[in-house]
Amino acid sequence: MEFLRANAAPLIYAVVIVLVLPLVAGYVVLVERKVMADMQARLGPMRVGPHGLLQPIADALKLLIKEDIIPEKADLWIFWVAPVASVTTSMVAFAGLAFGPAFQVARDINIGLLFVVGISALGIFGIVLGGWASNSHYSLLGALRSSAQLVSYETAAGMALVSGLMLSGTLQIRAIVEKQASEQVWFVFFAPVAFFTYLVASIAETNRAPFDLPEAESELVAGYMTEYSGFRWSLYFLAEYANMIVVASVATTLFLGGWLRPFPNVGWLRGLDYAPAALMLAVAAYCVYRAPKQPVGVQKLFMLAVAGLCAVVGLALAAPLFVGALTGLKAGIHGAFWFLFKVSGYIYVFIWLRFRLPRYRFDQLMRLGWYFLIPVAIVNVIAIGIALILEWQYGLNRWLALGMMTAVTLLIAVGLISADQKREAELQAPGKRASDFYAG
Fold it and tell me: Which residue blocks in 186-229 are alpha helix, DSSP H?
């Protein structure tokens, strides 16, 4: 009982994450399908609920009752455990994340960022084991591709995180955000190359297009998930979308100010404190406006229910601004809003890129990682280290020092691009074989 009293809040947060995360992942899928439909000049899912808002619930029920097929010669126990391993590691990684100054399972863990990155990287074991246990060449090849891709881009992502950690001087999640508050600047402005490197690497780590070779339907049927069906198949996708939220949360914490609102130290922009409540109330008003236009009575009621929910959230966000007794809740409530808002924007970039860029060939994917992204990440770490030495030892202005070294990093990146283009031209020269190129 003493343990429960001492850890009641973290345990409640953990339960909330486990219960809410599958629902959030389902609605991220719905948003993705809606964005894709908009880009293709169509409506997307519209059948289940108003504007298709209940489509994720229907998909979940369909997957639960769908026939589950296991290959005859599959390694049964590993086949069962593999998707559970992937989704478990992705959920455990949430324990180290802070969704606001008050919402964190593992509070004040001194290796917070290292814990998140290390646990989330273990998800590859579920992919490799699933591909191996399926007794399928397609699945095994997809698993091998995924492991090679993760090793390549995990290195670049790790070096990008090191760049941000050099600026913060700590691995503790709360301290990283507080450092950005004291510096009065998000680290994305100090280390834009590191943020770009992490963005590209995080897309590849989560097997998202244009780096979705491990599950490229046109080449490998469905990669490491070829022999999976029903609920176990959905666990792999739940792990993928949970990992999207994890990498977006890490980027938000380290580079985008965490739960800090934009320009928190600028007095004349205090009006942004009213933006969260105003946004939710505006969404509620729009739902009320759209409700009478729904063709079916139940859809009108559902739209009004959504409006009521948004209004309640808007009032909860507004209460700390106008009720003196609730002022102490402002940091936690508004911090959670801004954190989730930034994470949503980061995930939207993932979705937007999926339908804007063509898929890479596997050799292009590996060449981008090893010939460009990793060298640039390493050079950027060295450049930031030199900039910090120039500041600490010689008193040079931090903005000037980091700006100069960022320019040097960009020049080296341009040189790497030129060298890669030259290699590509040599590879495509008449009579030149790809095996000769890679052997050299």
Answer: 187-190, 192-205, 217-220
Angle at 36 between CA 367 and CA 230, to 5 degrees: 85
**How far, in Å, CA of 101 to CA of 332, rounded?**
6
Give first-to-last CA distance, the chain, whole Å. Answer: 65
Three-state SS letters, 125-169? HHHHHHHHHCCCHHHHHHHHHHHHHHHHHHHHHHHHHHHHHHHHC
Question: d(Cα 320, Cα 315) in Å, to the nearest integer?
Answer: 9
What is the C-alpha separation between 131 and 209, in angstroms, rounded?
Answer: 20
pLDDT in tens, the chain (440 residues): 676 776 777 888 888 888 899 899 999 999 999 999 988 889 888 888 777 888 999 999 998 888 888 888 888 899 999 999 999 999 999 988 988 887 888 777 888 888 998 898 888 889 899 989 988 888 888 888 888 888 889 899 999 999 999 999 899 999 999 999 998 899 999 999 999 999 999 998 888 888 887 766 556 566 788 888 888 888 988 998 999 999 999 999 999 999 999 888 877 888 889 999 999 999 999 999 988 888 878 888 888 998 999 999 999 999 998 888 888 888 889 999 999 999 999 999 999 998 888 888 888 888 888 989 999 999 999 999 999 999 999 989 999 999 999 999 999 999 988 887 887 777 777 665 555 544 44
100 phi/psi in degrees, rounded to 5: 155, 170
Q: Is 104 helix (H, G, I), strand (E, B) or coil?
A: strand
Q: What is the pTM of this model?
A: 0.90
Distance, in Å, from the CA atom of 352 to the CA atom of 39, rounded to the nearest integer, reads 9
**3-state SS class at 98:** strand
Are 150 and 124 spatial neighbours (Cβ–Cβ below 8 Å)? Answer: yes
User: Residue with structure tokens 């191996």?
Assistant: 132
Q: How far apart are CA 371 and CA 138, in angstroms?
A: 28
Distance CA 250, CA 176 (A): 11
Pick from 374, 259, 179, 190: nearest CA to 171: 179
